[in-house]
Amino acid sequence: MAGKLLIIGFGPGSFEHITKRAREALQDSEVIIGYNTYVDLIRGLLTDQEIVRTGMTEEVSRAQEAVRQAEAGKKVAVISSGDAGVYGMAGLVYEVLMEKGWRRDGGVEVEIIPGISAINSSASLLGAPIMHDACTISLSDHLTPWELIAKRVDAAGQADFVIALYNPRSGRRTRQIVETQRILLKYRSPDTPVGIVKSAYRERQHVVLTNLRDMLDHDIGMLTTVVIGNSSTIVYDGLMITPRGYQRKYTLGADVQPLRPHQRLQHEAEPWALRQWDAEAYGDSDWEEPDDADETRGEAIAVSGERAAAVRGGAIAVSGERAAAETRGGAIATPLLLALEALQMAERGRGRSDGLGADLTAGLFRRQSIFELAVSPGVADKKFTAKQMITLADVVGEKGSMEYTPHHQLILRIQTEQPEEITARLRSDGFLLAPIGDVVQIKACDFCNGEKNEAIPYAEALQQKLGGISAPKELRIGLNGCGMACYGAVQEDIGIVYRKQKFDLFLGGKTVGRNAHPAQPVAEGIEPEQLVETIERIVQRFIAEGHPNERFHKFFKRVKEIEGYRHQEMPAFTIENAVCGD
Ligand code: SAH
């Protein structure tokens, strides 16, 4: 009789969570080989099988014994808790077989029977913490160098994976979990939810919900799986939940209507998604454009091949959802819609049908949105008061963020359902608020602390008329109050310099890239009463005729003339631009 190796994952430990195939395989086997504790866990399912028990550290001899017995013609079950392919016996058995020159064809038959791994059983007891991209990391440095484990923890922390830690701690290995917490705190808030599950679906099951700061205050041992949330994981009523989507952002004055579920798959609603590749999309990206550098473009297209493939992969996943949806009467059924439908059915079953549906959906999306806006002390004012700083700290709170930009602004990101309360407070403290994104931004100097103040009213008038309005691409207008132009007005898309009671005008600076260049001087001595209107007309033309995502310097080059000011070809640069980060 031909022998066979059955590598069985029997799940977390309770009989209800063993698969049918795993039970059958156990019953079909003549020999069961496993670690003592595991044999005890499944003993109730065995009949007259021979049992080979071994200690925990004898994995290799377990695998060797299994192969030996199978080759001698026996049906041998090698058991692992959870899934045998997850830090289990499956790989080890194959290693022993490979060592012996085993081949699939003609060699002893091997069947791997999947089981519910600890990441899944623990997650089910915690709520729904995995949901999004997740990884498992074993903290056992018995077979893996600690340096490599630490590197993986670091990378997973940085990449915002939900992390399930296996083998987190033993009597002998106690420092690993402490180090892991330290590394993760570099990337995640101390409030990040953490679930600690001991002996899932076993007799002494114990579930604790805590956070990254306090996790070490709880009992963590060899029978424990620790699940660390990502940056969007929340705790609700004792459950740990990672919402599927990332948070949507909205800015000052933008339409903050919550999305209907079917709108979520549209690109406008998910601007972070990688677009299907085409030549135009390059200009859409946040990367620096390759400009005239053909070589760069070639290289970029080579990269794009991979990206396009990745997108296609993604698109297939989406279309799977869509396909499921289309069978449901044309509406696109996202998992969220299906969840709402299930909830409604369950509520109806309990004789309740009120208060669900559209309202619930709207609320869900509001809660997942982040309000972002730029603040500064004023157009000319560069000084924050202490009171303003306190207000900022207060409205941002522990969970929001405040980012200092190179453009005289702080960007605030706040999860809120009441943006108006925040803006009212900031305005009453004298802040100048601005939307972020592709808008017009006025960047003035400090007018030598207000001493050279003749041009300030013009900066303010420009701010009032043009500040924050939408443009095809972000458009920065620099205004400096004297010929020193020390705040770099001439480096901007549009530069204005006040000199001898009149204004000089500069157009089309290329503000970023290795081939950045200042704006071209196009006029000297514009009369003050004409300034604001002239600038308004220039901006309006850009808004009307600029292509989406076209930077102002490119627009100027393309249209050749604005308000009678002619674009002059610059001497050709041989320097190549690099994509962002290169
Ligand atoms: N093959 C197993 C993992 C073996 S490594 C699986 O797929 O689940 C052993 C580690 O798994 C333990 O240290 C613990 O972190 C985790 N683990 C296994 N069973 C568990 C259970 N019932 N409850 C919680 N964690 C468990």
TrEMBL record:
Domain spans labelled Tetrapyrrole methylase: 4-214
Top EC category: transferase
Domain Nitrite/sulphite reductase 4Fe-4S: 457-559
GO BP, one annotated term: methylation
GO MF annotation terms: 4 iron, 4 sulfur cluster binding; heme binding; metal ion binding; oxidoreductase activity; precorrin-3B C17-methyltransferase activity
Pfam families named in the record: NIR_SIR (PF01077), TP_methylase (PF00590)
Keywords: 4Fe-4S, Cobalamin biosynthesis, Iron, Iron-sulfur, Metal-binding, Methyltransferase, S-adenosyl-L-methionine, Transferase
Entry EC number(s): 2.1.1.131
Pathway in which this enzyme or protein is active: Cofactor biosynthesis; adenosylcobalamin biosynthesis
CDD domains associated with the record: Precorrin_3B_C17_MT
Regions crossing the membrane: none
Coiled-coil annotated spans: none
NCBIfam families documented for this protein: cobJ_cbiH
Protein name according to UniProt: Precorrin-3B C(17)-methyltransferase
Organism of provenance: Paenibacillus piri
